[in-house]
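2024-03-11 09:14:02 DEBUG pipeline.ingest accepted 1 chain
2024-03-11 09:14:02 DEBUG pipeline.ingest length=178
2024-03-11 09:14:03 DEBUG pipeline.predict start
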Amino acid sequence: MTDGHEHETMRRAMHLVACGMSVTLAAKSLGVTRETVSRWKNGPGRQLLQSARASVDTQLKEEAGDQVRALRGAIAAAVRELRKGLKSKDPRVRLRAAEEILDRVGIGRTSRVENVDAPPTPDLSRLTDTELEVLSVLMARAGGDASPDDSIKHQLAATLAAEWTPTAGALPAEGQRT
């Protein structure tokens, strides 16, 4: 081999090693012995190897930057697809889209959701028959049926507990609040 040819082969070998190829495979692909590539790597080719590694690192960083820019460009399309999922006819797709959106904005799953603004549910079993009758009258006055369901009873009982006590006497007149 001539000096110029050997230098070019050494440069190519160091580039292959810098790219992650084994010394054995680099030697085989260039038609030289493993010992030759190893000798170059640890001797005269050391600076070529360092230069090749720096070049490969720069190239990888540039390619990674290009990929990141491409992915950032796809964000709007991804958001559109998630929003389409929220409008799907399939409730499982809607749920999955909602979960993904919440996860991406940092609102993870919880084991239990509590309504901290909701008033405590009153215990209607502690009301007397008279108080339950008053509750029915209030329901009729508010436009509800005479036998309110439990959720409405709870709501009215909570209002009564906050606005009316037995010591205050009679119920307020219609249209009047205490």
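2024-03-11 09:14:41 DEBUG pipeline.report The first helix runs from residue 3 to 18.
2024-03-11 09:14:41 DEBUG pipeline.predict end
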